[in-house]
């Protein structure tokens, strides 16, 4: 943490990514300004009690955003995406571009934008990722120090209802012998905090972030070990993929390569030596969510914010 630091403005501070960033910055003794929709909500109150300054507003409230950016050193930008059902693709792009523009206009020293692991130079054909590519492209044109992080699939996502853990099975995108990268949400915050602490090192860089790589068979072994009983792994059936175009596109993107992840795990551990492996996450911060998933039925709802 620099001496006499200005605050970092965190968007999505009551969500998964923004919450992890706010938590990591606060633990590193950075002043945090949290942009929240409802300051009376439980997560907002927890942030306030942890030392964050709360600023009320929405992504549509340009006046509140500009005001929140006054006097800040950095901005962490993340937006909800269309698979979550709260915004359209065009709204996500509009919000991401507007925040970046206002950060540059307000003289913010460092903008960190959270994108997605499958985003690259070529369109993916999946709007969820291609919206982020459009925001990335705009960020790179601005007169501001910027860093783009591209998180892998969240470990937490695998404990959501609908994947079959309540029936002693687990169904996901990968073939049994096919691997992909994952990250614990808390590690997103720790990496971003390190990025804000060293803008000279990380400015102008785009990079994927992940904590581990696991195949379908690896997940079967890890979940069996954590559950204390057999958990059988399988890939989504053709019938399921035919009925869910979004899942089908993600599965095809994994087969094509971009969604499998290409983060440099060794380099990331040098930035954050405590980066969690899947086994460590299941034994620690993920234990409660995994135990709950073993007994919870329901349908899968995408959430990456």
From TrEMBL:
The keyword Flavoprotein does not apply. Keywords: NADP. Pfam families: NmrA. Residues 7-245 form the NmrA-like domain. InterPro entries: NAD(P)-bd_dom_sf, NmrA-like, NmrA-like_oxidored. SUPFAM superfamilies: NAD(P)-binding Rossmann-fold domains (SSF51735). Gene3D superfamilies: NAD(P)-binding Rossmann-like Domain, UDP-galactose 4-epimerase, domain 1. The keyword NADP applies. Belongs to the NmrA-type oxidoreductase family. This is Uncharacterized protein YbjT (DUF2867 family). It comes from Aurantimonas endophytica.
